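Protocol check, entry for the methods section draft. Step 1: assemble the input record (protein sequence plus ligand SMILES). Step 2: submit for complex structure prediction. Step 3: store the structure tokens unaltered in the notebook. Ligand used here: flavin-adenine dinucleotide. Step 1 record:
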Amino acid sequence: MSEPIIADIGIIGAGPAGYSAAVYAARAGYGVALWAGPEPGGQLMTTNEVENYLGFAEGIKGPDLMEQSRKQAERLGAKIVWDTITGIEKKDGGFVLQAEKSPGSVKAVVIATGAVAKWLGTESETKFRGRGISACATCDGFFFKGKKVAVIGAGDVAMEDTNTLTQYAESIVVFVRGDENKMKASKIMYERAKNHPKVKFYFNTEVDEFLGDTMIKSVRVKNNATGEKQEIPLDGVFIAIGHKPNTDPFRELVECDEGGYIKVKGTETSVPGVFAAGDVADKVYRQAITSAGTGCMAALDAKRWLEHLGH
Ligand SMILES: Cc1cc2nc3c(=O)[nH]c(=O)nc-3n(C[C@H](O)[C@H](O)[C@H](O)COP(=O)(O)OP(=O)(O)OC[C@H]3O[C@@H](n4cnc5c(N)ncnc54)[C@H](O)[C@@H]3O)c2cc1C
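Step 3, stored output:
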């Protein structure tokens, strides 16, 4: 293992939140090191068009947006470290960031490690991800104007996605594995979705197979109660079965909620000097621009913290 990288502010994560924090912290004159982790660029590396990030009149490709963000952070002086953080330890009034090859020693930390959508995990789902299958209705609903789509899930996020999709799609079917009594969504969210004329629920229903050629064309579903299978033509499917925040290395240090999201007040975590930004602390908005916004806030909060310590 090499000597630790010394920085004022250590940022963990290279998505919109991490890069935004790096831009603000570096521009404020602090020494910044950003650990990019297993997926440099974050979730937007897996998407094609980003149409709702402010400032790009014609939209921008996710990987292009993230490459520009990295270059902006580097131009302002942030050092990008191509390694993954495995833990954080409090030491001598600062923090040791543990990593396989390139650990760090920093005075303040911004955790911006994002979250990953949970997928069903079937082969045909993987094949059609980005080809009609999405995990973000707010991001991709717009591309399904006048189309037939499905939502898979029974919780509030699935109902929220269903309601979002009613603005665009011609019709929405919602596949729920259990029966109606086992809906996890709040009553008000469920009823709003159920009572919409474009929406139809299929209970006791699991997707057996996603079908199509280059794009998804239909799904084969199975009724869990009767075993009966049927094929339903569709243009898109939104998987809304939850997200997992990337907090495993930090759970012993900072307080997290029951879903594993870091608990924050603003961007402050339960540990003074450790801040969190982006999807890792946000189960509600989960957008690139909100992540960049909280990344900015975390950097400003870290700056205030360091000033308070006299740095
Ligand atoms: C397919 C898809 C399409 C989307 N489309 C849009 C869209 O059109 N518009 C929109 O606004 N939003 C969109 N989103 C949502 C958006 O991508 C996220 O809200 C945003 O990327 C969250 O940013 P983040 O910085 O919090 O985390 P992420 O983008 O998830 O980045 C997390 C970063 O943390 C790093 N990391 C994780 N663990 C560690 C570790 N232990 N050590 C070091 N680094 C670590 C990862 O390598 C990664 O770089 C989309 C999401 C998906 C999946």
